[in-house]
């Protein structure tokens, strides 16, 4: 940002209304280049001569505002006229709006700022070599606008009849303002546009539009009507069992947009500073004499403008729907920050959710920039002891937790992003944060080499502790100590890649592993540590659970002679549960991997194809178009899990796609070949899938794995790799084959 630009604000409070800051100026000659650079506390829309500039939605986006805020630069060379007016509308967004769940705000009720403020600079270069700077200062005017109220959770009120008037001049904002940095993440922009598939009158007599797809964004309304006509629409993800509009799971988020018509020809409405998570809208008010037509409404998905890299299809329609749900889960929750959900009064950067989904995310889309930005905020907000908060950016105040599996995002996310894109600089930039998180666990509590006594979320939403218990039955201290070992092992691997001496961490790892085994393993199986789990005592804590075995196997905390017993026990627990999982957020991403790595691919596929809850296909059978928060968010009898916490767009369980991609298609990145420079392709065919075909547009080019069953029961494999990828192809009962560029076809 040019140093001449000053932070400015309105002199008078504008209440809920979005103020517009305006500046008029004359072009002084032939322009060779003109740019406008903008940042704000709040979110903004930039206009030049009445036209919106650029396609950014909700800029300057969401960073750790107490440290930094991004600026965006727009090239307006071709848009300048002789006389120009720049207008910048501000909304509350994440900096001032109602963000965070109840009771978790900073004392002033906002995360960072008490007032909206703007900083901007117009830079014009003329053909004679001169340069003109027009920067924000107290000469800019403040105008009222037609946006009477806006809030991310609650929606927006736009009144086209509102008189827009000048309130006077802006004043300098001399409050503490964060550092302004260049845009680091992806821009959030409008993406898919979807027409409604049905207009329904519900049993309650309400008019509801169904867009057929749960998504995050908003509905654009195009309408001709009379001055003062109102459209009031509320958004929801699901209908209840009677077919009525259901909003209780949105908790306090109103998700309601209100539009008031000017009556001047065709009018287009959409929110500027809010978004909703929805599949349905209810028309609470609609002009009586206007004809209600599907053509009036278009759902617009918004999310970070990431390049799509992955693709998948197979011969099983339900798995294809599951894949579509995973993709839409990512779209709806990658709005600048990886969030838990896009609809209720959270939409927060929960670290645990991102930790489990990160590998899948990096197959579906190019998320390197997206995670680079988020991880920078995470590092800035790391506690002096190395703790990583449950939410990044902008954790709430009192009561925030530093929890296992959530805090480990500090290690697992940089590691996975390195694995996907091979950028050592990213690993290097995050290395301090990664080590400090290990230091936090090491320094925590009395047991030096265990992570015991913390306030954890455990195997969040696991099904093995009965209804109403969120943490599941696995001892959270077992989980925490297992993650302590796993994250330490990843830091060692990362350090070696960076050429660091990791002797100290290797010694630590040996001690952590030993301590884990002494505390949590008995006769070859996970057990209860009597000194553990001080926090959640009001739940049935068990030593032997699917998740405890899964973590021991996945994180290498067993001795070889224990392995078969553990695998058999896991199979037994699954079978005792009628062939189904009981795992939650932390066990689920690993259970299929553990089975297929240990000779039970059959059982891994059985779980993938399971249709009774808890299973992935249960929600597909229930008509889901995104991944649900709970295995049984909507039960077979049509009732809902609960109103307290029941999102229908929560990507965490979508992490199963890294198994489908990495095991069913078999594409795995080798440790010394990050970024898909070196891969193994070991496809795992299953009749129920018929065929499976998937690809990734990697940094080295397109990699594809395709297999299909032939009528004679044999399988035809086809693997394609780009020239700079070195692949080792392992087909059943065949010697490994090396392939560097080209296609390999074999029938086995
Ligand atoms: C969120 C989760 C999050 C969790 C912490 C919930 O309210 O929606 O996805 O990770 O809290 O356990």
Characterization of this structure:
Helices cover 24% and strands 28% of the residues. The strands form eight sheets. Strands 11, 12, 16, 17, 18, 19, 22, 23, 24 and 25 form a ten-stranded mixed β-sheet that branches. It is globular. The structure holds beta-D-glucopyranose. Beta-D-glucopyranose (BGC) is lined by residues 340-341, 346, 350, 352-353, 457, 460, 645, 650. Beta-D-glucopyranose binds at residues 340-341, 346, 350, 352-353, 457, 460, 645, 650.
Attribute tags:
binds beta-D-glucopyranose, Jelly Rolls, 14 helices, Glycosyltransferase, 7-stranded mixed sheet, alpha+beta, 4 domains
Please outline what is shown here:
Helices cover 24% and strands 28% of the residues.
Task: Describe the secondary-structure layout.
Layout: E1 8-9, E2 20-26, E3 31-41, E4 43-48, E5 51-52, E6 68-75, E7 83-91, H1 93-96, E8 117-126, E9 131-135, E10 141-143, E11 147-151, E12 155-159, E13 166-169, E14 171-172, E15 179-182, E16 188-194, E17 198-201, E18 207-224, E19 230-236, E20 238-239, E21 245-246, E22 256-260, E23 266-269, E24 276-285, E25 297-304, E26 310-314, H2 317-333, E27 334-335, E28 337-338, H3 351-364, H4 368-380, H5 409-421, H6 424-443, H7 476-497, H8 503-520, E29 521-522, E30 525-526, H9 546-554, H10 560-576, H11 588-597, H12 601-609, H13 616-621, H14 657-664, E31 667-669, E32 678-681, E33 691-698, E34 701-709, E35 715-729, E36 737-747
Parallel strand pairs: 6-15, 12-22, 32-35
Antiparallel strand pairs: 1-14, 2-7, 2-10, 3-6, 3-8, 4-5, 4-7, 8-9, 10-13, 11-12, 16-25, 17-18, 18-23, 18-24, 18-25, 19-22, 19-24, 20-21, 26-33, 27-28, 29-30, 31-32, 33-34, 34-35, 35-36
Helix pairs in contact: 3-5, 4-5, 5-6, 6-7, 7-8, 9-10, 9-11, 11-12
The structure holds beta-D-glucopyranose.
Beta-D-glucopyranose (BGC) binds next to α3.
């Amino acid at each position: 940002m040019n140093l001449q630009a000053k932070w400015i604000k309105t002199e008078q409070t504008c209440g809920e209304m979005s103020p517009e800051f305006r500046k008029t100026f004359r072009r002084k000659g032939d322009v060779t280049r003109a740019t406008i650079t903008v940042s704000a506390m709040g979110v903004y829309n930039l206009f030049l001569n009445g036209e919106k500039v650029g396609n950014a939605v909700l800029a300057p986006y969401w960073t750790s505002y107490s440290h930094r805020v991004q600026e965006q630069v727009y090239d307006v060379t071709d848009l300048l006229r002789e006389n120009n007016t720049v207008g910048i509308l501000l909304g509350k967004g994440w900096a001032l709006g109602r963000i965070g769940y109840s009771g978790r705000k900073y004392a002033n009720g906002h995360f960072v700022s008490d007032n909206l403020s703007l900083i901007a600079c117009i830079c014009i270069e003329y053909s004679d070599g001169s340069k003109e700077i027009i920067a924000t200062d107290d000469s800019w005017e403040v105008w009222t606008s037609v946006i009477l109220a806006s809030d991310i959770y609650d929606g927006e009120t736009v009144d086209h009849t509102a008189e827009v008037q000048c309130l006077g001049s802006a004043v300098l904002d001399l409050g503490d303002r964060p550092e302004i940095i260049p845009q680091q993440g992806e821009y959030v922009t409008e993406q898919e546009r979807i027409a409604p598939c049905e207009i329904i009158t519900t049993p309650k007599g309400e008019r509801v539009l169904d867009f057929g797809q749960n998504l995050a964004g908003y509905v654009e309304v195009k309408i001709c009507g009379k001055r003062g006509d109102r459209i009031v629409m509320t958004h929801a993800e699901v209908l209840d069992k009677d077919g009525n509009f259901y909003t209780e799971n949105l908790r306090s988020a109103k998700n309601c947009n209100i539009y008031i018509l000017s009556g001047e020809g065709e009018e287009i409405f959409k929110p500027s500073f809010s978004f909703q998570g929805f599949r349905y809208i209810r028309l609470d008010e609609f002009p009586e004499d206007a004809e209600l037509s599907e053509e009036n409404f278009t759902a617009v998905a918004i999310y970070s403008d990431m390049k799509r890299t992955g693709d998948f299809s197979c011969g099983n329609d339900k798995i294809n729907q599951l894949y579509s749900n995973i993709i839409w889960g990512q779209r709806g929750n990658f709005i600048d920050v990886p969030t838990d959900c896009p609809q209720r009064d959270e939409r927060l950067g929960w670290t645990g959710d991102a930790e489990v989904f990160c590998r899948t995310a990096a197959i579906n889309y190019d998320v390197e920039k997206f995670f680079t930005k988020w991880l920078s905020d995470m590092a800035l907000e790391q506690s002096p002891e190395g703790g990583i908060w449950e939410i990044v950016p902008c954790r709430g105040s009192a009561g925030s937790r530093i929890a296992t599996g959530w805090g480990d995002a500090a290690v697992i996310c940089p590691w996975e992003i390195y694995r996907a894109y091979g950028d050592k600089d990213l690993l290097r930039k995050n290395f301090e944060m990664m080590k400090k998180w290990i230091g936090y666990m090491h320094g925590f509590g009395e047991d030096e080499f265990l992570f015991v006594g913390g306030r954890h979320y455990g195997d969040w939403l696991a099904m093995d502790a009965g209804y109403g218990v969120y943490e599941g039955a696995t001892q959270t201290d077992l989980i925490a100590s297992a993650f302590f070992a796993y994250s330490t092992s990843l830091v060692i691997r990362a350090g070696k890649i960076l050429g660091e001496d990791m002797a100290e961490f290797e010694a630590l790892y040996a001690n952590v592993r030993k301590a884990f085994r002494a505390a949590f393993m008995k006769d070859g199986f996970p057990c209860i540590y009597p000194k553990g789990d001080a926090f959640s005592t009001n739940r049935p804590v068990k030593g032997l659970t699917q998740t405890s075995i899964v973590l021991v196997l996945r994180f290498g905390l067993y001795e070889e002679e224990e392995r078969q017993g553990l695998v058999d026990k896991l199979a037994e627990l699954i079978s005792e549960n009628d062939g189904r999982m009981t795992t939650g957020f932390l066990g689920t991403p690993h259970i299929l991997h553990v089975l297929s790595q240990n000779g039970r691919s059959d059982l891994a596929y059985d779980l993938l194809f399971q249709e009774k809850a808890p299973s992935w296909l249960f929600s597909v059978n229930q008509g889901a178009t995104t991944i649900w928060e709970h295995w049984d968010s909507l039960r077979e009898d049509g009732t809902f899990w609960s109103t307290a916490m029941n999102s229908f767009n929560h990507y965490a369980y979508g992490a199963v796609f890294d198994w489908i991609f990495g095991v069913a298609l078999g594409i795995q990145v080798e440790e010394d070949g990050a970024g898909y420079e070196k891969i193994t392709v070991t496809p795992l065919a299953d009749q129920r899938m018929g065929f499976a075909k998937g690809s990734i547009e990697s940094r080295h080019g397109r990699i594809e794995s395709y297999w299909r069953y032939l009528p004679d029961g044999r399988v035809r494999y086809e693997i394609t790799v780009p020239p700079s990828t070195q692949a080792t192809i392992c087909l059943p009962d065949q010697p490994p084959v090396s392939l560097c560029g080209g296609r390999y076809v074999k029938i086995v």
